[in-house]
């Protein structure tokens, strides 16, 4: 009989062409999908192709990508401690077959009709930025947008609020002309974090070149190996919000919606930060969302963290 497994996957996108194969990367960079499929085969789980809740671009990292795969079983799985142990063993075998920058956080049984993409009720993309003038950890350089100017948090929150709801995003995406460009953004959160750590990247607040976290009391940053709660488990991130209006040291931009267009989120993030640094007036947001908009905002670099969740 055929049934489904649901995998919660975290990965660093630096060495991949994205979730799915890209013609432009053929022969140079593998896709995460191909890498996971090969591991599923080597671990004896399934020969089927994994289906993800969202297709992430080249260089984008995932805190928790939801993936469904079809497997064959001789009998239905019976919930209980024995089955939990079997699922934990599947995750262990997959991680042994995967490179260190792709991790299966958990394996779960799913309904036989479960489909990660069509069943996704919401998708969340997060950008992290740090003040590069004060230095940053190696993780920051790989997973964060490094800024060189102070930020006006109030202006950024107003810009984000103007983007919420249903709009035509034609000026802030690279969708083909044949694709409808109206999308609804459920929420945009703009936060100043005193500390943050991410799966696989570790602490974003350690000194440049490595070392221990300098923002939290000794022993309280699990990502730095000093004990405390281990961040990144099950796709969680660790952080404390700063004072109202505080600009750093870690900026978090969190976008949630039912779906996004190609490059939409990175251009939204770029415009919000441009407003925060004063390079763009706040009115640029409404102009970009109006029929008068003719050009997209400048793009940021890599550093988006994506996660997608299945609808219950």
TrEMBL record:
<protein>
    <recommendedName>
        <fullName>tRNA pseudouridine synthase</fullName>
        <ecNumber>5.4.99.12</ecNumber>
    </recommendedName>
</protein>
<dbReference type="GO" id="GO:0005634">
    <property type="term" value="C:nucleus"/>
</dbReference>
<dbReference type="InterPro" id="IPR020097">
    <property type="entry name" value="PsdUridine_synth_TruA_a/b_dom"/>
</dbReference>
<feature type="compositionally biased region" description="Basic and acidic residues">
    <location>
        <begin position="227"/>
        <end position="236"/>
    </location>
</feature>
<feature type="active site" description="Nucleophile">
    <location>
        <position position="57"/>
    </location>
</feature>
<feature type="region of interest" description="Disordered">
    <location>
        <begin position="291"/>
        <end position="312"/>
    </location>
</feature>
<keyword id="KW-0819">tRNA processing</keyword>
<dbReference type="Pfam" id="PF01416">
    <property type="entry name" value="PseudoU_synth_1"/>
</dbReference>
<feature type="binding site">
    <location>
        <position position="125"/>
    </location>
    <ligand>
        <name>substrate</name>
    </ligand>
</feature>
<dbReference type="GO" id="GO:0003723">
    <property type="term" value="F:RNA binding"/>
</dbReference>
<dbReference type="GO" id="GO:0160147">
    <property type="term" value="F:tRNA pseudouridine(38-40) synthase activity"/>
</dbReference>
<dbReference type="GO" id="GO:1990481">
    <property type="term" value="P:mRNA pseudouridine synthesis"/>
</dbReference>
<keyword id="KW-0413">Isomerase</keyword>
<dbReference type="InterPro" id="IPR020095">
    <property type="entry name" value="PsdUridine_synth_TruA_C"/>
</dbReference>
<feature type="region of interest" description="Disordered">
    <location>
        <begin position="223"/>
        <end position="249"/>
    </location>
</feature>
<feature type="domain" description="Pseudouridine synthase I TruA alpha/beta">
    <location>
        <begin position="159"/>
        <end position="293"/>
    </location>
</feature>
<dbReference type="GO" id="GO:0005737">
    <property type="term" value="C:cytoplasm"/>
</dbReference>
<dbReference type="GO" id="GO:0031119">
    <property type="term" value="P:tRNA pseudouridine synthesis"/>
</dbReference>
<dbReference type="InterPro" id="IPR020103">
    <property type="entry name" value="PsdUridine_synth_cat_dom_sf"/>
</dbReference>
<dbReference type="InterPro" id="IPR020094">
    <property type="entry name" value="TruA/RsuA/RluB/E/F_N"/>
</dbReference>
<feature type="compositionally biased region" description="Low complexity">
    <location>
        <begin position="291"/>
        <end position="301"/>
    </location>
</feature>
<comment type="similarity">
    <text>Belongs to the tRNA pseudouridine synthase TruA family.</text>
</comment>
<dbReference type="InterPro" id="IPR001406">
    <property type="entry name" value="PsdUridine_synth_TruA"/>
</dbReference>
<feature type="compositionally biased region" description="Acidic residues">
    <location>
        <begin position="302"/>
        <end position="312"/>
    </location>
</feature>
